[in-house]
Amino acid sequence: MSSYVAVGSGLAGLAFALRVAESGHRVTVLTKAQVAEANTSYAQGGIAAAVGEADSWKLHEQDTLTAGAGLCDPAAVRFLVQHAPDAIDWLKAVGTRFDTEADGDLALGREGGHSRHRIVHFADRTGWEIERAVVQAVREHPSIEVIEHAFATALLVKNGVCHGVRAVVSELGERTYLAHGTLIATGGGGMMYQHTTNPRVATADGIGLASDAGAAIADMEFMQFHPTTLYHPQLRSFLITEAVRGAGATLRNHEGRRFMYDYDPRLELAPRDVVARAMEAEMQRLGTWCLYLDLTHLDPEKIEHEFPTIYAKLMELGLDIRKEWIPVVPAQHYSCGGIVTDLGGRSSIRGLYAAGEVARTGVHGANRLASNSLLEAVVFSQAAALSAMADPVEPESLEVAEPQSVAESEAVRIRHALQSIMTQRVAVVRSNEGLKQAESTVESLIEAYRAGLKAPFSQYALETRNLLLAARHVVQGARARTENVGLHYNVDLDKE
Ligand SMILES: Cc1cc2nc3c(=O)[nH]c(=O)nc-3n(C[C@H](O)[C@H](O)[C@H](O)COP(=O)(O)OP(=O)(O)OC[C@H]3O[C@@H](n4cnc5c(N)ncnc54)[C@H](O)[C@@H]3O)c2cc1C
């Protein structure tokens, strides 16, 4: 029996743990907050799979490649879409409930960029339901131990081989977890920006850990912004799923004009980057802070039934979406790039695997097709599990330096400065001058962090450091791109 470690308890980390444990091995899952505090729990729309009668993996493949704007890895895309129906079956077997039609078939929604109805969902809280089911399955498995409030601080890497991970565990202090295989499944890095749909745990820790260990990282400049995030002082960054636009909601400016007519013939269901750019341009043209999503022409009962979470949340704020427009802005949503992995979830370091949002599998290319990420988390974490079991390393205990922090007040200053420059200069619309400025600011913040190292361990400070290292990859990737493609749009490249 071998021992494996997964860092992160979202869908990727837990699917890996279940697959490895099913084969009779032990798994320790380290997670820095409570088990279900993960991007996975917040996913609303659903999970894409060609399971409908009028659909096929070939159509799903084509839609994914089109969204990726020529930069997907075709082999990874094929692997993803061909395994999608099995992934849905696996989730059902684990206990996930999905909405069904009267005849018992899965009810399928449609989202931007998909040529067919293929979004398997559970109302507008699919991620919550998936996380509920996998957490329960993991809790019931005797070979899996989940350690909450365990913050991974370093990978144990020697001579190109990973032997496990070091973590600071609440009430226990520093601990070493040696492993025959180590999975990074730490999710995204939305906290790099002022506005994000991601929860607070999304601090790009996996990118920081992998950077320190020297693992290959790529495509970080392809940062997806979700066009329709609630603009409201009491509820920042609450997502209004694309499925709402799929159901017929329209985007309007404050004058009531359906402005997408001026930008793209696919209107509200154009790919996310197109819609987000159109919204930025429209807000700039009109000098407004937000735009509006209009559901008022839809059947009120359908709104309450299909989007119960959104309906109830906004009602709490005094906004009746059956009668009033929803104020919305684009916000950071998903990181397409990450730790480079192959079809088996292997990173460039032996014994180290990555899956889920932290990985760059090649399936998203320059832009992620909606609802392909939960799917990617299942398919590639299970592939990583098989690879890890096929090639166990002999773990060796290694010395690692104690994690060092800056004072929290300094970390707060650095994080705010980072969020400000990334939001202003490295968001939906970029420019040569803006990227240059961002690069110099990020480097000076990294320098300031290094110069301030003297305080005792602070998770907030170390997360800030990880955000800085990830931001450096985003900015450097954006500066190196010489053409506008997918999510990367630099106004100056249009002029050349
Ligand atoms: C609001 C919202 C809506 C979305 N809707 C959809 C959708 O409809 N369909 C879709 O396909 N995708 C959707 N996504 C994207 C999708 O949810 C994520 O990409 C996916 O869930 C990522 O899963 P994951 O397991 O890789 O990471 P996560 O679910 O984010 O889990 C990461 C885990 O790592 C832990 N962690 C992080 N750093 C450390 C550390 N240093 N030490 C220990 N633990 C650590 C975190 O605490 C967390 O448990 C949505 C995302 C958001 C935010």
Structure description:
This protein has 496 residues and is of the alpha/beta class. It folds into 3 domains: 3-221 and 336-390, FAD/NAD(P)-binding domain; 229-331, Alpha-Beta Complex (Flavocytochrome C3, Chain A, domain 1); 408-495, Methane Monooxygenase Hydroxylase, Chain G, domain 1 (Up-down Bundle), CATH 1.20.58. Helix content is 39%, strand content 17%. It contains 15 helices and 18 strands. The chain has helices spanning 11-22, 39-42, 57-67, 74-94, 126-140, 205-213, 242-246, 272-286, 300-306, 308-316, 373-390, 408-425, 432-451, 459-480, 491-495; strands at residues 3-7, 26-30, 47-48, 108-109, 119-120, 144-147, 150-158, 161-169, 173-178, 181-184, 217-218, 223-230, 250-252, 291-294, 326-335, 338-340, 352-354, 359-360. The chain has a 5-stranded parallel beta sheet with strand order 6-2-1-10-17. Strands 12-15-14-13 form a 4-stranded antiparallel beta sheet, covered by helices on one side. It has a 3-stranded antiparallel beta sheet with strand order 3-5-4. The longest helix is centred in the last third of the chain and has 22 residues, at 459-480. The termini are far apart. The model has no long low-confidence stretch (mean pLDDT 96). Bound molecules: flavin-adenine dinucleotide. The site of flavin-adenine dinucleotide has 43 residues, from helix 1, helix 2, helix 5, strand 7 and helix 11.
